Records
---
Amino acid sequence: MRNPFHIGTDIYLRPLEPEDVPSLTDWTTRPAIRTVLDLFYRPLGQSAADLFLERTKNDAHDIALGIVAQETETMLGFIGLNRIDQENSHIQLGFFLGEQKADGERYLSEAVGLMQRYVFAVLGMNRLWLYVDAAEARTINLLERQGFVREATLRQDRYLDGQYADTVVMGQVRGYGGD
Amino acid sequence: MTGSQVYLRPLTGDDAAAFVPWVNDAEVTRTLAVGAAVMDRQAEQAWIEKMNASGSDVLFGIAIQETGRLIGSIGLNQIDFRYRGASLGMMIGEKSMWGKGYGTEATRLVVRYAFEKLHLNRVQLHVYEYNLRGIRVYEKVGFRLEGVLRQEHVYDGRFWDTVVMAILREEWEKRPALPEADPRKT
């Protein structure tokens, strides 16, 4: 393991490095991931990775980590925190898996679990939340299994492929399961 | 924009003085997302100028028709022309003007502006669970409850839930007509 920040059973989370740019470029130019990152609306090549790295590193409170498989040392995706609100004690979670593998959901659950522990036990936050596309039933189920609750559905919140799409707000509060 | 009781007008840096007592009054700010920061005239002036220069915010002063007295502000923030959405925020700073329907009328005017002038599709807002007066105003205008963000806000030493409400263009277009003004009262 190289520079591990959080270590799980099958994966570990580590800081992103300049040598991750090729992987990130590949991922951040794929349509599905560009949609998740809200980068889909303009053509992007190599600059997508730079834009993404810049977006995740331009604030001292933002935390961006790569999800890496322990056995193969392959970077599978990304998980991060942003929009910290110290006064109200909450922070936003974001993630994507670049490599769609059979074990993807298991790895992602593990990564989310590591971040939950970090947010509540290390950062001392009271609330962790995120936006999920309402059509992403598998992600919503995964988060529910991790203790998140579907708190709100923002109707026609985004415009994708010629039609409006709903966004779900999922939240977890300290002491209410999972943390 | 003009209603029957209030009108909305642009704010300038000169209006900052009126806002300073309001944004430092705990009774006023308990329903606002302004945090615990102390606001002086310069900060307030900078905020008004920043809003006026912004391409993604619109800010109006709320003034009484009869007297021209400024009683608060209302605006649209995070205007996103790609998704055609925005967030609404309002403050009636003059406490003696609470409960008179001015907020409801100002909200209607701004929502109409959002749909008819800016051609938006969705206007949303966050309101704290203890702001029952606010929730009633927004329901009256046609906002619908979309969910409750648990323990999203700290006030007075404890966590409170934040209510998410929104109105869509299609709901605004189908709203029932307002009752005609009673001629006996005019």
Note: The mean pLDDT of chain B is 92.
---
Amino acid sequence: MIALLALHGVVGVVLVALGGRLGRRGAWLAALVPAATVAWLAGQLGPVLDGRAVTSHVRWLPGLGVDLDLRLDGLAALLLVLVSGIGVAVFAYAARYLPAEGPGVGRLVGLLLLFSGAMVGLVLADDLLVLYGFWELTSVTSFLLIGNDHRKAEARAAALHALLVTGAGALAMLGGFLLLGHEAGTYRISAIVASPPTGPVVGVALALILLGAFTKSAQYPFHSWLPGAMVAPTPVSAYLHSATMVKAGVYLIARLSPAFAADVSWWRPVVVSVGLVTMLGGGLRALRQHDLKVLLAHSTVSQLGFLVAVFGIGTPAAVAAGSTLLLAHGAFKATGFLVVGIVDHQTGTRDLRCIPRLDRTWAPTLVAGTVAAASMAGIPLTLGFVAKESVLEAFLHAGPGPWALAVGGVVAGSALTAAYSARFAWGLSGRGATAPFDVVPAAVRPAPGFVAPAAVLAAATVLLGVVPGVADRLVGAHLAVWHGANAALGLSAVAIASGAALFVLRRRVGRALATGRNLPDGGRAYVGALRGLNVLADRVTAIAQPGSLPIYAGVILLTAAVLPLWALTTGASWPGLPRWVETPAHVPVAIVLVGAALAASVVRRRFSAALFLGVAGYAMAALFVVQGAPDLALTQVAIETLSTVLFVLVLRRLPDRFGWAGGAAAGSGDPADGTTPHDSRMTGRQRALRVGVAVAVAGSVFVLALVMAAPEHPTPTTEQVVARAEPDGHGRNVVNVILVDFRGFDTLGEIFVLASAAIGTVALARAGRRPGTASSPSAASTAAATGPPGRGGDGEPGDRTAPAIRLGRLVTLDVSVRVVFAAVMVGSVYLLFAGHNQPGGGFVGGILAGAAVALRYVAGGIGDVRRLSRARPWTVLGAGLVTSVGTAVAPLLLGDPVLSSAYRKVDLPVLGSVSLSSAAIFDIGVYLVVLGLALMVFESFGDDPVDEAFEPPVSPTGEVPVGADPIDVVGATALGQQAPS
Amino acid sequence: MSVLLAATAAALFGIGTYLVLQRKLSRVIVGVGLMGHGANVLLITAGRRGRSPIIGSSDPSGFADPVPQALALTAIVISFGVTALLLALAYRSWLLTHDDEIADDAEDREVARHGHRDAELVDAAAVEPVDPEGDPTPGEGTP
């Protein structure tokens, strides 16, 4: 059984993939798969019908208790006959019906086969959750099949309608399955049915499951998706929306009904009435249709209601009668669809007012169509008659009292069925045409092979109608044409006669029905619900996504401030105030920190704000020294230097003052506004709000800091880390050992964050730039030639004129910078290697190297930086990542966990005995990543403005004329201001 | 931890928050930087103050707590990456608008004002009326 499912899946996927090449020929290949299923089934049928189910068990998700349990019993075999038998006919038909080539043809065939596989799985599944999985697969493939022609709005809407309705039902059903499985203690369907659980929870579970079955089988009021699904090509409609998928709900009811109908008091009334209401509603709607395919769609709704009503009774007789009807309906409805498809394909219409009289050469098609209609109406000598007789018997024997009402409903529904069947046969023969049409020329007559599938199904209908005993064992009851002159026969005759009368009086009936079309129905409710959801989504969007960064940030920060406070007030005790001041050294540090922060928030010039931020950074470095953290102090100083240069590089582009916007002159702020150097558009209320949030955050942080006051004694973690640094990490600098060894995995993640930030920075800064400006020498020299004089050509090694001019300007600076650069680089490498035992490490070393590069940039511009090495910044970054990741995963090759460190003492000629640890190599990667980040920053922002495609016509600050070298002026100033601090 | 440093961290967070809530991206960046400093103050004071945690330099019992230091080191370097990225955003904003103002998202405002018709709703409306038989005269031709 698993192999069968796999066969469906594999061939289906292949057909979807190769569909474009095979076109409709793929349908022949696809037909082989259901044919193989039928052949396999024929081999199993004997024992299965004797009551020995074939089972298959594959462990799937043992942790969740879900296994791939499959089980072939009588009911499953019946469904399988329908699914695969009609499948063969439909694929053979599709090979003629579909256009030979064209977009989506092959995909359609492949999807149809995938659907078929899902359906086979659905009827074989013996586990509720496995059944649910296949159930959803049929929904998804059905969605794709209905919407196959996605250029048509109709197809898209119908596909979504079907998916949303059946999907919502399936979700309810899943809930029901979980409840039922929980109550029963097993998800095996055969076990649940054998000893059904009871209780109120089971009632809820069954209600949810019925909801899923009703939506899938298009029961009132969820029926509206099915007629819309008729936009799909005829093979799809014939297969999915008549013979198989819509039967899934019926199948589920047929499975559960025998177990629960008797014990659950509401089961029979609810299921039978929903079925009968659907049957009557669908029949009335079918009577109004002119489009024969839509007529068949509504008749399908009606027949599905009939089936649900019968299976809802749940007695063995009813199940057998329902099974017969299931078989009969599958055969005649598929025949009907195929015949309508043939007429539509050959004459171009399926509207009964336009279908022309078809001549004698069409006889096979018309006969097949008429047989289908006769079976649908329940005319003797068709399978439909046999089925209807046994259904009436089942209803007559169901019980007294209210069941008489049900019998009346069945007879009324059957009368409607007979009427629309007559209407179908009448319309098909061309007698309904409102204008005379010529007899159709021979050229459009369908080929015999095209009609064959419909003819075979019609023949089966007649054969089983004449000798129904053939199917006895399949449906599990004795079927006969003649049961004697009993009540069922009389009711059948009444139904057929009433149907004939309805057909004869069709004008009057039509007028009467027309008044009913404005009654509410599920389709309008669906569109209304869709519209309502849309409005709701708009309202929610308007509130939750106002599009304002300050609002988002404010909400986030306020939440972050308030929630921990709330947790503290409920969960923690107040430890009392710690000391006011820990050491006198903290006082100046705090004063500088807060002072610089305040200054940064009130100054009106961007540069000043950035510089005050830098001041705060140096104050942080001082704090680190006081706390006994030399690594942090080193890193902070290097970072502060580097980020000040970074700020300068970016801020030189931006207006000098915050108030400037869109062309206003710099410094246009009103002098009277001097005390409030903020965005002039900010109202008092907005500012109050911001201050309020800021105060809340500050208060929260203050309380948090006091509550989490540091322990005066080292924690066990700290003691362990310190004790193990040398024996385990082979390093004496504990902080560095933590970074590259104990918490190396964090560091690995961190350098990936840095690399992402670097790539993002370059991408943001360079997006939209003329292609090749930075990397291609020819482009660079073009820029230099066309642009104003500047450093545009610096990137090209051969172009020596521009650097020559520059060297002539600042020789002393240039030379001294080169010397300092070399010294700083050596220092950074020293920090890198010494870091394991002394203050330092990869981060500090990399940042110091970056600061050295900044020095070169200040002296010589981006050209000097590019000439430092042939390696591009991203190469450096990538090399660092590869080094670190390589060191991290290398132990895997030796069978050790990730990031296990190795250690060896090596004697080197000059340096003497050196301890080499793999952590040191890891640190080299960190160094390279940080250096790469710095290089990429210069690559991003370091270009001269003249290289830019987006250079504004006038520099917004008005201070630096275009084409001059702003970086020397501004950069040097910035560095100069920093130096004292 | 002392009251002084707790207050310092709180002040850094408060001022940073105020700046982050502004509309000029450069102010937001400065604000993020200040909040980063505040976080580092909290981190570093969460551990004991002491001598540099370098084995062999002094008695380990007098060491400063190295664990928060490692956390703070990571935080410092990450905030540099964040600053670089935010500055790139400001730079990009300047390239496109010659300013670093963060305006409201125009499309979001539009949805809030007028709503947005989703494609599936357009499809569904195009297929309406759901009633498939549009012909008001139900009578047919003569048989």
Note: The first helix of chain B runs from residue 3 to 20.
